[in-house]
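Reviewers asked in the last cycle whether our approach scales beyond single polypeptides. To address this, we selected a multi-component target totalling 724 residues and predicted its structure end to end. The input consisted of the following lines:
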Amino acid sequence: MISDREIYEGLAEIFADVFMRDDIPLSAALSAADVADWDSFKQIEIVMATEERFGVKFTSAELDNMRQLGDLVRIVAARGTPPS
Amino acid sequence: MKAEEQRSPSLYWLQQPPADWRARLADLSKSTPGEAAWAEAVALANYRLNFQLTNALATTVARLFRDAPDQILQTRPERLAILSSSTTTHLHASLRVGALRRGIWLDVYETEYDQYRQELLDITSPLHAFAPSAILFALDARHVTRGVQDCGTQSQTTQVLDELCETMQSLWRIAQERFDCPVIQQTVVPSLSSLLGNNEHRHPASPAAFITKFNSRLRDLSEAAGIDLLALDARIAHDGLMAWQNPSLWLHAKQEIALPAAPMYGDLVGRLLAARQGRSAKCCVLDLDNTLWGGVIGDDQMDGIIVGQGSALGEAFAGVQSYALALRQRGILLAVCSKNDERVARQPFDAHPDMILKHNHFACFVANWDDKATNIRTIARQLNIGLDALVFVDDNPFERELVRRELPMVAVPELPEDPALVPQCLADAGYFETATLTDEDFQRAAFYRSDAGHSHDTASATDLNGYLAGLAMDLRWARVDQTSLGRTVQLINKTNQFNLTTRRYTEAQVRGFMSQPNILSLQLRLVDRFGDNGIIAVVIGRLDEQSTVEIDTWLMSCRVLGRQVEEATLNIVVEAARRIGAKRLVGIYRPSQKNGMVSRHYERLGFTPQGERSDGVASVLDLDSFVPRETFIQLSEVSA
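The resulting structure, written as structure tokens, was:
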């Protein structure tokens, strides 16, 4: 099992690399509208980096329905594994 | 390394980015866009970067320099135009970093979504304004297989294939004429699912079979058309399709190449661009012990080294040799860089029946006790090629790190520990990328023969202090005890080269030494930031009634030569001897066939020669006036 804290810690590193800044306050309600450079390319970077880091594969339906960070965190919490 | 990290598309032959990689990138973003910044950018690119770090590096470099910094570049800047049927924007950063890794500045232009034909034909298009120096046709699987689904017979399929090939040939020709630049055609990603299975080729309407045929046809056409291939299909056959593509994301974003494979994609293109600039590596510099054979020739001797039939390990080393020989046959020079006595190092090549590489396969053969950075400079000078044309292959992380540090322009792959994986590692790293073969390639090796014109110049030693200081070496010593007895006896009976007296003792004899208070039997273990080297030295000394400790045995593994272990060992021996009441040390050198390298050992450590005795040459060191030798090694006494 992976805790929400571990997920957010991993996501913080991913966001820091993807956006090249570490001051984005991560929360379940965070969405692309809240971050200046968060376009469709960044969205894919976040998704792919999350897949690699936590060993999950998102389905097409999940990709379509990802509205805010909490959606992604929920899937990782259900199926992800902590990075070794 | 985890197993999945040892596979492409991870750039696994490069080192993991160090802990301060991000901090260095942040520093780079604040620096002035000059020569030093460019060198740092190239250095940061030469790590095993995932796509996030690759993107961050590309963004930083683009913000810092904006345009090709022509005045500081030592390579020709490239302008790559991607003529694509799907989205490749997510690959630009990796393409730029793939070039940057080779010191090449790259600008990338991508034609509008599925507009590549129009832009190629319209001379007022942005493509023409971009004025590319190289063109890459990147067509996705669905685009290429349009119309195939309607074929009812094989002859209809062939007709569709012929038409597609004609179209491509004319597009290549137009690109070549308009832009007078190299054209690269990406083979099609075999991403479409089969309909029949093993005999897919029998189905005329199979897109999967069509891709196989088209990729094969591209290989036939490329020669006459004068284009280069970017062989993604071959790469994917090796890495696995799912490593390169993500079906959900294809639907989501029309990205045919998945982001995790982007760094490898960029590296593949970078290799092609560098090869066309004549910047691929030309020479493979090989270590010997535990790289070309298992074991240490100086200690294990001819019948002790592992190579050839008889064991899987021996065959694996033979496989490394075969791969090197095949590289040589197609024009890559081979050189040896080994810490060994030259005479000893040459023996297996001349006389070991299972050696695949022979003496005359090497353009340059350097075996001595100098540091490897110095010797690699010698090799480059003797072969009259640049240091950046060398790849250094060595199983020993210490040597690799030393060469990386002293000679950052030399390519130094992280080598898999298992020699069975080494040929694939060298292939995956793509150092020797060659787009076209010439007759000269096949003849080159014959021009360079190590036995012709062998020069013995001694180059100045590299200043190693900074490197040694950073190794965090810890020499852990103790009296030989039950736990260390086995390894101690093994070293006593196997060490030939760094062995002052070559006195062999049985386990019972050594156990006897352990129990006598007037006999020092010391074992020393070296730990550094690469790990534990194990027990690497043994010293045995005997205290007599005149308060003299005579050093009966002093031996050391040659792996740790050149790291001040000798000086540090002396400090330990002096300390241990004083504790049992010694006033002086006497060292003996007994010459043998193999131990010429330590003939001046005691002299180098400040002993005073006393002349010959029946059992060798004696030297003395007075302990009252002894000042501990300064080294970069910390000494730790380990209690039993």
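Chain B touches chain A at residues 2, 22, 50-53, 55-56, 59-60, 89-90, 246-249, 251-253, 255, 258-260 (CB under 8 Å). We regard this as preliminary and will revisit it once experimental data from Aim 1 are available.
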